[in-house]
Amino acid sequence: MTRMLFAGATGLALIAAVPVAASGPLPDGTTAEERANTARLNAEQRAKAEAETAAYEQQVAANAQAKASAEASYSQATAAYEEEKARVAALAAERRLKWEADVAACEAGDTTRCAPPPVPPQP
């Protein structure tokens, strides 16, 4: 913002510094009015470019922040998924070991650990 004010003030100073009475061409073939207009247009363009640059930098920062947030969220979700997957795998392994022990005990003659006989379907 300070740059834009400074650029605008510089442009106005350039315009004010050009003598109005000199209406004839300068050594390079331009008139004082042309130089004043050129200085004004340059100041306007500089202010516009600086504003666009500031807006672009804000957008870049916002995109970087959004990306970092998305990556953090993804990492958290991945960690939660891996924890749940490990918990389910441990539970399944525990149940399988119990089932294998029950089958072995049933085959060894311990009928209390055998599965109940299937119920025939009712007609």
Characterization of the model:
It is rod-shaped, with a radius of gyration of 41 Å. α1 (2-17) runs antiparallel to α2. The model has no long low-confidence stretch (mean pLDDT 87). The chain has helices at residues 2-17, 32-107. It has 123 residues and is mostly helical.
Topology:
Elements: H1 2-17, H2 32-107
Helix pairs in contact: 1-2
For the termini, the CA-CA separation is: 87 Å
Helicity, in percent?
A: over 70%
Q: Regions with pLDDT < 50 over 5+ consecutive residues?
A: none
Residue-averaged pLDDT: 87
Please tally the helical runs, counting DSSP H or I stretches of 4 or more residues. Answer: 2
> How would a crystallographer describe the biggest sheet?
none
- DSSP strand count: 0
Percent strand: under 5%
Helices and strands, in order, run as HH
The shape, in one word, is rod-shaped
Q: Structural class from helices and strands?
A: mainly alpha
- Alpha carbon gyration radius: 41 Å
Please give a quick description of this structure.
Helices cover 75% and strands 0% of the residues. It is mainly alpha-helical.
